[in-house]
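Handout, page 2. Input:
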Amino acid sequence: MAANLWIGLPMVLAAGILSGNCMLPMKFARRWPWEGTWLVFSIVSLIFLPWVLAFAFVPGICDLYRTLPASAFIVPFAFGVGWGIAQLLFGISISRLGLALGYAIIVGLGAVLGTLVPLFVRNRSVIASSHGALILSGVAVMALGIVVSAAAGSHREKNVDVRPVGSGYVVAIVVAVVCGLLAPMINYAFAFGQSIGGAAVARGVTPTLAGYAIWPVVLFGGFIPNVIYCAWLLTRNHTWHTFRQLGLPDLWMGWFMGLLWMGAFALYGVSSVYLGRFGTSVGWALFQIFMIMSATLSGVLTSEWKHAPRRAKQQFWTALALLAIATALIASGNQA
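Output:
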């Protein structure tokens, strides 16, 4: 399918807004423990909704899977497991570092790696072209914007009475960095697991919907480390009784998080098709930029920056400006 920036860009913008706010409901969970809310979120976003979308948009999905060799599932599933580890570390990091700083570190590393790895592997020849120059310039500006955003969050930490929960600040940063290194594996799974999508297209599914055949495989891999960790915490903390209180608002916080998250990735998968042959590189970069901007603004609206010093706020707005410039460069590279 030919690139169509004016369809793909609004879709990836909407995906970034949804993803940037998918952790926001957790801030309003009051009575349930973290592991209870996260288990509901994992079941909804990694098992229930991917299969609902697959059955809705890929007719005969089970028959499709039966026709494929086991090797077609190995790569997306393995990347899914690696990303699943990042996913649970992500929840821990956000609870310790806050929306703004957590997203800056985790999404920042994931954005750079998730953009460049598919670009170098699948479209290496473009690097020396005008396309590549604009895209790489945009990635460099994006990385600078992320660094400035992280610096702003760090200055906010030093001057505001906000402390990571549990472990110390350094440990929380290390966890966030590891998470950032593993996070782009979900994009690798989508970029390098196209044999499943290709088989769906061969059976008459449109390219824009074929990605829904990949998600159940990838996200089942991601579900495994999440459910193991949540079950361990529920057992250790003796909090299984949480699920007897199904009427509490905290249950619906987990559901809402799952709807926002899966909605984001469903839109991203479609937008990457409209963005053309660089879709899993350019699309991923734009997705991460919009996610960071959305999460940072949500941090402002939920008073994370209310008492931040002037220097931190200046860096905050500088980071948003840099990310906006990066968006323009990367989008131009996709059209050059």
